[in-house]
Amino acid sequence: MAERRGKGLQIPLHGFKSRPDLHTYIKIECRTNSSRSEVKVVLDDSNRPWGRYEILQESAVHKVKCIYVNPGARLSYQRHQKRAEHWFIVSGIATVVLDGQTFTKQPGETVDVAIGQLHRIGNNSDKELVFIEIQTGTYFGEDDIERIEDDFAR
To answer: pTM of the prediction?
Structure first.
């Protein structure tokens, strides 16, 4: 359990295992909002040309990310061989492509992407798109991305 001491926050680290193979780290952000403090724990975060993502949770059978897509940007048209994805739109309007069919999703709506299914999500609006991605499968590395089309020539 975390405890406050003076202006700092002390978190006991017993029970945490070293994971150098995943190159993860813990980032802690504390913001004071009148009488309460929020602590946000992020296992890893990464900036991309289309925006950024934060890894919120991971295990051998799943990974959870919060993904932020900049206005006017979109991710690669891609597929994965070892994982399925479930997206929950938090804010903004998502332009989704699944196997060549395009549709939009509003906050509170979801998208399911099967293993091997071609998919893309983009943000055609002038406000940031935020969605939660839940990956399930047998492998969650960034090298399980087969890019079919990419705006950034990756």
So the answer is: 0.73
